[in-house]
Amino acid sequence: MNWFDFIDLVDVVGFFKQWGQLIVLSFLAAAVQMYLSGKKFTFFHYFMGVIVAVFSAFLASKFCEWLDFGSNLTTGVIGVCAYTAPHILEGLNKFVQYFFQNPKEFLTFLKAK
Questions:
Q1: 94 in the Ramachandran plot: left (φ > 0), alpha (ψ -120 to 50) or beta?
Q2: Can you tell me the distance from the alpha carbon of 57 to that of 26, in angstroms, rounded to the nearest whole number?
Q3: What pTM was estimated for this model as a whole?
Q4: Lowest mean pLDDT among 10-19, 30-39, 102-111
Q5: Is the pLDDT of residue 7 over 70?
Q6: Count of CB atoms within 10 A of residue 46's CB?
């Protein structure tokens, strides 16, 4: 097997076409989101939120295929995962920021419980 056989297996043109479509749609969705929200965050924040939502929807889809869910349930699971993933990651980010800003206070809080 040489490099040319590997390139034929991967379908390079189709791969870059799909990634290009994903990036363009993510840019458009982030721009619309930024316009509607009144520019509370940077464009990169919205763009990464869209990318996280798309990848979480993909993972939810594969999870539903693995568990052999019905099509109605699959649609709901994908929608919920795509909506909540950016929010969960933002909450996790705030938790980590709080922990590193006040580690002593956080540890005393855990000991009190």
A1: alpha
A2: 14
A3: 0.64
A4: 10-19
A5: no
A6: 23
